[in-house]
């Protein structure tokens, strides 16, 4: 089965999947729709605004493997985390400083709503990265949750 890695101009499948799930994807056993397309679109908008940003970097030899989709048997994070539904990613910005983006989260949350995000983890608890997720929530503002 022919599979593609590239999802958008800046994002590829291996940035969302751990190594095991990536291999399942490559062998045709795991559908790419396991990752919510709204998340991919919103992450692409994030990168277009803030520049190069890493999610998983294992494909490039780095340590991060559980920053995108998390399988149900993975012991990283909460049991009902949006990561397990393919609706959240932990983004590590490389071009724009974490501090600058954190200021936008606090003072201009509409930027992230327009990108398509619904929820952000409290940035006081995510120093160095941003957990942003798509999905439903009951507010017209970016909802801040504690990890
Ligand atoms: Zn997260």
Q: Quick gist of this model?
A:
The protein is an alpha+beta fold and 147 residues long. It contains four helices and five strands.
Mind explaining what this structure looks like?
Strand 3 (119-121) and strand 4 form a beta hairpin. The chain is built from four helices and five strands, in the order H-H-E-E-H-H-E-E-E. By secondary structure, the chain is α+β, with helices and mostly antiparallel strands. It has one domain (13-71, 80-145). A five-stranded mixed sheet has the order 1-2-4-3-5, covered by helices on one side. It is globular. It has helices at residues 19-26, 37-50, 98-107, 110-115, and strands spanning 53-54, 88-93, 119-121, 130-133, 143-145. Bound molecules: zinc ion. Zinc ion is lined by residues 83, 88, 90, 131.
SSE order and pairing:
Layout: H1 19-26, H2 37-50, E1 53-54, E2 88-93, H3 98-107, H4 110-115, E3 119-121, E4 130-133, E5 143-145
Parallel strand pairs: 3-5
Antiparallel strand pairs: 1-2, 2-4, 3-4
Supply database-style keywords:
five-stranded mixed sheet; binds zinc ion; alpha+beta; 147 residues
């Amino acid at each position: 089965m022919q599979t593609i890695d590239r999802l958008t101009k800046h994002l590829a499948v291996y940035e969302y999947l751990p190594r095991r799930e990536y291999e399942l994807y490559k062998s045709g056993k795991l559908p790419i729709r396991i990752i919510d397309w709204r998340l991919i679109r919103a992450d692409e908008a994030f990168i277009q605004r803030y520049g190069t940003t890493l999610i998983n970097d294992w494909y490039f030899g780095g340590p991060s493997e559980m920053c995108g989709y998390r399988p149900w048997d993975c012991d990283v994070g909460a049991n009902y985390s949006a990561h397990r539904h393919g609706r959240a990613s932990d983004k590590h910005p490389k071009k724009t400083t974490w501090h600058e983006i954190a200021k936008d989260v606090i003072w201009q949350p509409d930027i992230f709503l327009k990108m398509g995000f619904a929820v952000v983890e409290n940035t006081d608890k995510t120093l160095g990265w941003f957990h942003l997720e798509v999905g439903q929530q009951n507010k017209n503002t970016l909802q801040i949750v504690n990890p």
